Amino acid sequence: MDEVVLGIVCRRGRVLLVKRQKDDDFVWSLPGGKIEAGETKEYAIIREIREESGVDCVAVREIGSRVHPVTGRPLSYWECRYHAGVLYPRISTIEKAEWVTREEALERLGEMLFDPAKDFLTSCSVSHGI
Predict the structure, then answer these.
(1) Which residues contact 88 (CB under 8 A, 6 or more apart)?
(2) Number of C-beta neighbours around residue 123 at 10 A
(3) How far apart are CA 103 and CA 122, in angstroms?
(4) Over the stretch 29-62, which tens digit does the pLDDT of each residue have?
(5) Distances (CA, A) of 29 to 32, 37, 38, 39, 127
(6) What phi and psi values does residue 84 have, to the nearest 5 degrees?
(7) What are the boundaries of each domain within the chain?
(8) What is the pTM (predicted TM-score) of this model?
(9) According to the CATH classification, is domain 4-123 in 3.90.79.10?
(10) Strand partners, 5
(11) How confident is the model at residue 1 (pLDDT cuts 50, 70, 90)?
């Protein structure tokens, strides 16, 4: 099964989210996607964030991993540091990208969010990113 990477990018106390197509609707999520053949997790998360949001970042560390409770796909969550870029999604399955507060991110992502990712978002502050 395809492994998926998701990135948490904090900048000035805000978190990067994307509004992704899911079935016939759009839902808020962390940017990320499938690891392609020959890619490392670090490269995949950098590529996916750039494609989905227009933001260039650096993969800092893996926050945690799990098997998604609904899809059964292996997921890994990554702390990513903002480097440069403006919000401009480059793929059709992303309706928009937005910097939101931690509180908005937690609300939009919902209860199914992986606990280590929630913990990281809760601690996301001005010191994460520029």
Answers:
(1) 53, 54, 97
(2) 11
(3) 8
(4) 999 999 999 999 999 999 999 999 999 999 999 9
(5) 9, 24, 25, 22, 23
(6) -165, 175
(7) 4-123
(8) 0.91
(9) yes
(10) 33, 76
(11) low
